[in-house]
Amino acid sequence: MNIGIFDSGIGGLTLLHQALVMLPNEKYIFYADTDNAPYGTKSSAQVITLVDNVMHFMTEHNCKAVVIACNTATAAAAETMRRKYKIPIIGIEPAVKPAVRESHGKRVLVAATPLTVREEKLQNLVKRVDDAHLVDLLALPRLVEFAERGEFESDAVEQYLREALSAYVLEKYGELVLGCTHFNYFKDTFRKILPKDVHMIDGSEGTIRQLAFVLERTSQAETLRASEQKNDTSVRYFSSGREWKSEQELAYIRQLHERLERMRVL
Ligand code: DGL
User: Where do the domains of the chain lie, and which CATH numbers do they carry?
Assistant: First the structure.
């Protein structure tokens, strides 16, 4: 059986990337809902309908669990989907809790999409963990557009981020939470702008750890005998229902994985 991982677009590859490192023996269906991206500027009701369509696709494709690799879709739709579908649904959310813990009294900036910032789920999370009122929320909708058109490093990206961050005294911050999976592609530009000691954090590792835990608990984890080789056809990629199969499409995916690997260590 498969594990479904989906996002509105290429941001979700961050979680697939992490899953391939931590759970290399599984088979994955990666689904980017590119026809409907971005999700972050839509209403919750619209996002719930879109996520429902993807969940339907995942159950038709023999998925034993689904990772919502999109903070926006998790905030707007995870609870509704858990009531509707029987398979485990694991969602990513902004890593606010570890950020507050690790910022050692300095401020925490949480960057996400406009819908995630508006949603009650994030507001409640902040209320729960931010006793000292150190957390600020910032919506960065344009980064998703840049990422979807493959523009990761450019003057326009840098100018956009410099402008958005100019409202904050960055020296007062200890952590920047990347609360949208698309934002991981821009860690090099963030690094350029942020003071050296501001650390960047996102929820992908915790989410895949949670996936591993759920698979173990439901006895669904795949284990290979030492002699078996991991085969590299263990991921199928879909864009709003159409499978990416051409050499050109798969080469682009490889490039994105390589970029994410470089960003992982920043
Ligand atoms: N990557 C998604 C997230 O983590 C949102 C991108 C979008 O706006 O579609 O929130």
Answer: 2-91+204-264 (3.40.50.1860), 96-201 (3.40.50.1860)
